[in-house]
Amino acid sequence: MDPTQLTPDDVKKGIEFGKILWEYWGKIRKALGGNKSQILMTGMQGVGKTTLFDFMTGMGYQPGYRPPGTSTSKEVGNLKRKDETTGLVVIPGQDSPPRIIATQETILSKSPPDGIIHVVANGFATIRSDSSSDFLQTLERQKTLEGQQRLLQEREILELRQVCGWIRQAHRQHRKPMWLLLVITKYDLFSTATNLTSDYYPGGRGELVKSLDELKTQVGTDNFSWQATKACSWLEPFSIKSATIPSTLTNQQRDTMIEELVKLVLSLSSDRRM
Ligand SMILES: Nc1nc2c(ncn2[C@@H]2O[C@H](COP(=O)(O)OP(=O)(O)OP(=O)(O)O)[C@@H](O)[C@H]2O)c(=O)[nH]1
Ligand SMILES: [Mg+2]
C-alpha cells in the first residue's frame, strides 16, 4: 500500500485521531509539570525518530504529509498554542554534526529531561547518502541483506551505549532522567521476527537489554526504570541491497500502536514524578 494514497475517509479519520493525540500531550505536559520539563527522543540515524515523533504528535496525519529527510537540528514538538510545547524533543542521530549541540542543550544541560524515548528499528535504519562515507562503504561491503542488517543492529547497540553514558552523567548531578522507553519502530517491516523479545524487552538477553539493566543497577532501581514497546509510523516498503521488504501492517494497526505508545508515555510521565 502506498502511504501517500489516502481516501477522504482516511483523511477524516486521521484528523480525528490527531485531535485525540493532542489531548494526550496536554495531559503529558501537565504530568511533566510545565514548560521546562522535557522528554527526549534519541536513536541512531535513519531509524525513524522524526517520522515517529510526527505521528505521535498528530502531524503525520495531516493530508500531504511526507517523512522528512535527515534531521539537522533538534526538533521540538509544538502544540497549537504558540507558547506551549509537547515537551517532546528529538535529537539527530549519530554522524550528524548538530547532534553534539543538541545533546548539550538537553540531556547534558542543567535540567535534563524527565524521560527518554530511545528508538531502534531492528536493523532497518535508512542510511542516506549524506551520512559518513566510511559507514556507507562498510555497509556496501556486506554481501547479504542479513549482513547489512547485522551491521545496523550493531550500530543500534553502540548508539544506545552512548545514550546510557549520557544518562549516567546526567544522573550524577541531577538524578534525571527517571525512565527510558525503548521503542522498536518500523515494526511493519518485521512483524513476524522472532528475536524481539530477547533482543529488546526487559528480561531478554541481548546487548541492549544488558546495557539498560547495567545502567539501572548503576544509577539505582529507585531512580530509573525502563520498558520496551513496538510501533510503526510510515508504512512503506524498505529497499536495501537490491531486496525490497514489504510493509505488512494496516493504518488501523499502526494507529493502535501509536495510541498505546502515547498512553505509555503518559503513564511513565505520571508515575515517575517525584
Ligand atoms: N516501513 C517503515 N518505514 C519507516 C517508518 N518510519 C520511518 N520510515 C522510513 O524511514 C526513513 C527515515 O525516517 P526518519 O524519521 O527521517 O529517521 P530519523 O531517525 O529521524 O533520522 P535522522 O534525522 O537522520 O537521525 C523515512 O524517510 C521513512 O522512509 C516505519 O514505521 N515503517
Ligand atoms: Mg530525524
* Ligand list: guanosine-5'-triphosphate, magnesium ion
Strand order of the largest sheet: 2-3-1-4-5-6
Largest sheet: 6 strands, mixed
Residues in helices, as a percent range:
40-55%
Helix and strand element order = HEHEEHEHHEHHEEEH
Q: What number is the mean pLDDT?
A: 87
Task: Describe the model.
There is one protein chain. The chain has 274 residues and is α/β, with parallel strands linked by helices. It has eight helices and eight strands. The chain has helices at 8-32, 49-56, 98-105, 133-141, 145-174, 196-200, 207-219, 251-271; strands at residues 39-43, 75-78, 85-90, 115-120, 179-184, 225-230, 238-240, 243-245. A hairpin with a 2-residue loop joins strand 7 (238-240) and strand 8 (243-245). Magnesium ion binds at residues 49-50, 71, 92.
What is the gist of this entry?
With 274 residues, this protein is of the alpha/beta class. It has 8 helices and 8 strands.
SSE blueprint:
Layout: H1 8-32, E1 39-43, H2 49-56, E2 75-78, E3 85-90, H3 98-105, E4 115-120, H4 133-141, H5 145-174, E5 179-184, H6 196-200, H7 207-219, E6 225-230, E7 238-240, E8 243-245, H8 251-271
Parallel strand pairs: 1-3, 1-4, 4-5, 5-6
Antiparallel strand pairs: 2-3, 7-8
Helix pairs in contact: 1-8, 5-7
The structure holds guanosine-5'-triphosphate (GTP) and magnesium ion.
Magnesium ion binds at residues 49-50, 71, 92.
